[in-house]
Amino acid sequence: MTLRFGILGCADIARRRVAPALLALPGVELVAVASRTPGRASAFADEFGCAPTTYTALLNRPDVDAVYLPLPPALHAEWTEAALLAGKHVLVEKPITPSADTARALVWLAEERGLVLRENFMFPHHRQHHTVRDAMRAGLLGRVRSLSAEFGIPARPDGDIRYDAALAGGALVDLGCYPLRLAQFLFGDGITVRDAELYSTPAHGVDLIGRVTLSCPDSVTATIHFHLGGDYVNEYTVRGESRSIRVERAFTPPADWTPRLTLTDGAGLVAPAHDQVTAALADFATACRDPHSDHSKRAAAIRTTELLDDIRAAAGWALTTVR
């Protein structure tokens, strides 16, 4: 059965990564793309051979089974709800929503209607993280003591949505959620927030720098850092009693990059090159053919939003969005 996709929004990630992967994926068809700006939708549609349309018209199309939604975080709830009510499976950019209450409501709606709702964290589909987790479980590092992870990017141009508090911008939602979800991937959803700090500047109404300490099962401590503005950093280290393992290009590796995971005693583990974008989309398409199999991923998505709420509470930071 062919899964017919529509894309709700012409974000850069949709054009650079997701649309090309959809075109290359067997059993998947890209049918339509929507934008609030007709010219953007037309240009996108011409590039990828699909139909240009509006948001509402796309959701009303009977030839669209699933929707990819790369809109700003504060718009996720509104348009995810609309897509689910229209009977569409939804792949929404991470996080599913910026806060837990709306995430729970959307998950409940998806379950009630027998639809797949998944947030588009791609990195857990890369085999390098499975290699790390397998090494941890096999005792290769000895007893695991800590995780240190960091994701940061240089400053963005003025007007970037990441600087817009009304759209739930900021470093935590855009970047900090990656090492947060990594901690969930490695240690499970039982992690809790021990303390957190979020910092801004007088010129910005969003958080630009953050540090979070998490308590994980088996007395493991995870420390995550993230920043919007500064050097590009994208790595993590898992430390054990006997050895540690370091992962570079952790969250956004190119499809043709072969990771070498470095151990502190000079040894290394090689994970195969892997296209995490295609893998994530293929896994979503598989779930759409059996929606009731997706419960664990929905639970992890809710837990991520609960942890985001806990981080803001620990840092004394209020979330301001349009909803």
From TrEMBL:
<dbReference type="InterPro" id="IPR036291">
    <property type="entry name" value="NAD(P)-bd_dom_sf"/>
</dbReference>
<comment type="similarity">
    <text>Belongs to the Gfo/Idh/MocA family.</text>
</comment>
<feature type="domain" description="GFO/IDH/MocA-like oxidoreductase">
    <location>
        <begin position="130"/>
        <end position="245"/>
    </location>
</feature>
<dbReference type="InterPro" id="IPR055170">
    <property type="entry name" value="GFO_IDH_MocA-like_dom"/>
</dbReference>
<keyword id="KW-0560">Oxidoreductase</keyword>
<dbReference type="Pfam" id="PF22725">
    <property type="entry name" value="GFO_IDH_MocA_C3"/>
</dbReference>
<dbReference type="InterPro" id="IPR000683">
    <property type="entry name" value="Gfo/Idh/MocA-like_OxRdtase_N"/>
</dbReference>
<protein>
    <submittedName>
        <fullName>Gfo/Idh/MocA family protein</fullName>
    </submittedName>
</protein>
<dbReference type="InterPro" id="IPR050984">
    <property type="entry name" value="Gfo/Idh/MocA_domain"/>
</dbReference>
<dbReference type="Pfam" id="PF01408">
    <property type="entry name" value="GFO_IDH_MocA"/>
</dbReference>
<feature type="domain" description="Gfo/Idh/MocA-like oxidoreductase N-terminal">
    <location>
        <begin position="3"/>
        <end position="120"/>
    </location>
</feature>
